[in-house]
């Protein structure tokens, strides 16, 4: 009878152990003092600790040997209630696990067993980190796409230099740092400034633009700082707010800052440092909050050396310098700008003008001393005055044609129509003869013509024996 009971116990115990081992989660059982009694395969897989190394060992021993940072079993025994903690295990590698220990009490209320289950948090934490990285990358990609979209909508930027400049301008739009735009007249400094303002958090605020060179000095002070009633003869009744006050909450753009007198430079510096402005004829000051962007078409450092510009103001204005290169140094922007203004003025004047390929080549070869402003004016003039719908190089001013010619080593003028093969043969003959005249050997001539030495010898012999017709080509060296 006792044997039957023992067999039943063994069968039940085997079934329970099978259930224990089938669990994917780690499960282990200790006695009331924290001694390991049983450990399933999940514990071995998750922790890297072997069952034989744990059975008969106290959980507190693992703490002492720094295999685990703390014992949840001990905590559950002391509290006599279920405890869940995050536990760090150091075996073959450091792992983070979540462990829940449940005490089993006997009839006297004492802890007889503790059943603990644990789940690997390392993969979960890694997955969470990867999700965070993915979200961050997604945000960065979205910001990049948004930036590129905004740039394409606001600025013609095809050259790599202009694209990089616009990306920097976009980043500067997100902060309130003072920006100094440097570059020749007509490069589009105001366009860049408007882009920065429209991409900034101040986009809904005012955009105040002042050309410091376009206002007489005796009027510029009142225009900038405002004035009180009776401040000077002709002052408006009730006074007037200056442009600095009107820029409150928005952006103030001072173009050609190099034109400011030393007196006004000092007053502007005080406004920048104190964020307060005093009207002409007043002892009171008003708090102002504006983003300042300035531009210059002269070298301010040279002006400082010549005592024409304050160095302390220069340092306050040039926190973020942006140099806008002239149009001749960003050739890839020329054709897109031409097509942009062609479309703009066609719509404005209800025209359907087109531009020939040769005309576009002339535009590319031209130096554009007036930069984008000159290009815009030229396109408008051609749209208005050109009689035909197709704008050709004949419609261009002489300086464009001469620039296009200078862009080439020679210009061939065809005086009459001849068979194409005859024309090509004549060009080849003249070129071979010229190479043989100017070069010291056939090897040198071959290198200059970028053909083989054998071809040079053969073609030169053919040229000597060939019947020469009266030249119909004139080579104009420039």
From TrEMBL:
The UniProt entry, under PROSITE patterns, shows: PAS, SIGMA54_INTERACT_1, SIGMA54_INTERACT_2, SIGMA54_INTERACT_3, SIGMA54_INTERACT_4
Stored CDD domains: AAA, PAS
Q: Where is the PAS domain?
A: 12-56
Q: Name one GO biological process term.
A: regulation of DNA-templated transcription
The protein depicted here goes by the name HTH-type transcriptional regulatory protein TyrR
Keywords associated with the record: Aromatic hydrocarbons catabolism, ATP-binding, DNA-binding, Nucleotide-binding, Oxidoreductase, Transcription, Transcription regulation
Q: Which Gene3D superfamilies match?
A: 1.10.8.60, Homeodomain-like (1.10.10.60), P-loop containing nucleotide triphosphate hydrolases (3.40.50.300), PAS domain (3.30.450.20)
Does the keyword Secreted belong to this entry?
no
State the organism's lineage. Answer: Bacteria, Bacillati, Bacillota, Clostridia, Eubacteriales
Q: Where in this chain does the record put each Sigma-54 factor interaction domain?
A: 155-384
Q: SMART domains given for it?
A: AAA (SM00382), PAC (SM00086), PAS (SM00091)
User: Which is an annotated Pfam family here?
Assistant: Sigma54_activat
Recorded GO terms, molecular function?
A: ATP binding; carveol dehydrogenase activity; DNA binding; perillyl-alcohol dehydrogenase (NAD+) activity
């Amino acid at each position: 009878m006792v044997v039957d009971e023992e067999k039943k116990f063994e069968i039940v115990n085997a079934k329970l152990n099978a259930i224990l081992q089938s669990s994917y989660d780690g499960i282990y059982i200790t006695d009331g003092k924290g001694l390991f009694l049983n450990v399933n395969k999940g514990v071995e897989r998750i922790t890297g600790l072997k069952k034989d190394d744990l059975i008969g060992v106290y959980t507190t021993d693992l703490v002492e040997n720094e295999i685990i940072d703390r014992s949840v079993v001990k905590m559950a025994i002391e509290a006599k209630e279920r405890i869940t903690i995050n536990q760090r295990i150091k075996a073959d590698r450091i792992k983070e696990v979540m462990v829940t220990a449940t005490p089993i009490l006997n009839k006297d209320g004492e802890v007889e067993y503790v059943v603990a289950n644990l789940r690997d948090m390392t993969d979960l934490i890694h997955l969470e980190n990867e999700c965070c990285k993915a979200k961050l990358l997604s945000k960065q990609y979205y910001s990049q796409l948004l930036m590129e979209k905004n740039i394409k909508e606001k600025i013609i930027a095809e050259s790599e230099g202009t694209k990089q400049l616009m990306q920097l301008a976009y980043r500067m739009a997100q902060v309130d740092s003072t920006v100094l735009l440097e570059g020749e007249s007509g490069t589009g400094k105001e366009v860049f400034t408007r882009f920065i303002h429209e991409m900034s958090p101040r986009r809904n605020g005012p955009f105040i633009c002042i050309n410091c060179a376009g206002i007489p000095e005796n009027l510029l002070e009142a225009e900038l700082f405002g004035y009180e009633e009776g401040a000077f003869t002709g002052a408006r009744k009730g006074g007037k707010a200056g442009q600095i006050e009107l820029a409150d909450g928005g952006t103030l753009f001072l173009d050609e800052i190099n034109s400011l007198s030393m007196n006004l430079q000092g007053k502007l510096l005080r406004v920048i440092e104190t964020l307060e402005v005093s009207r002409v004829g007043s002892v009171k000051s008003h708090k102002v909050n504006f983003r300042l962007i300035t531009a210059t078409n002269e070298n301010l450092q040279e002006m400082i050396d010549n005592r024409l510009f304050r160095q302390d103001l220069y340092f306050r204005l040039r926190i973020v310098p942006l140099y806008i290169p002239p149009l001749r140094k960003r050739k890839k922007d020329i054709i897109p700008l031409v097509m942009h203004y062609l479309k703009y003025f066609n719509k404005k004047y209800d025209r359907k003008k087109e531009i020939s390929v040769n005309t576009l080549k002339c535009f590319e070869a031209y130096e554009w001393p007036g930069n984008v402003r000159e290009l815009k004016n030229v396109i408008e003039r051609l749209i208005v005055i050109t009689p035909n719908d197709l704008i050709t190089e004949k419609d261009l001013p002489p300086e464009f044609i001469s620039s296009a010619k200078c862009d080439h080593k020679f210009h061939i003028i065809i005086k009459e129509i001849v068979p194409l093969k005859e024309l090509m043969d004549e060009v080849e003959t003249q070129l071979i003869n010229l190479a043989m005249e100017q070069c010291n050997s056939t090897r040198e001539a071959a290198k200059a013509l970028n053909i083989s030495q054998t071809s040079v010898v053969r073609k030169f012999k053919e040229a000597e024996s060939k019947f020469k017709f009266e030249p119909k080509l004139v080579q104009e060296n420039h």
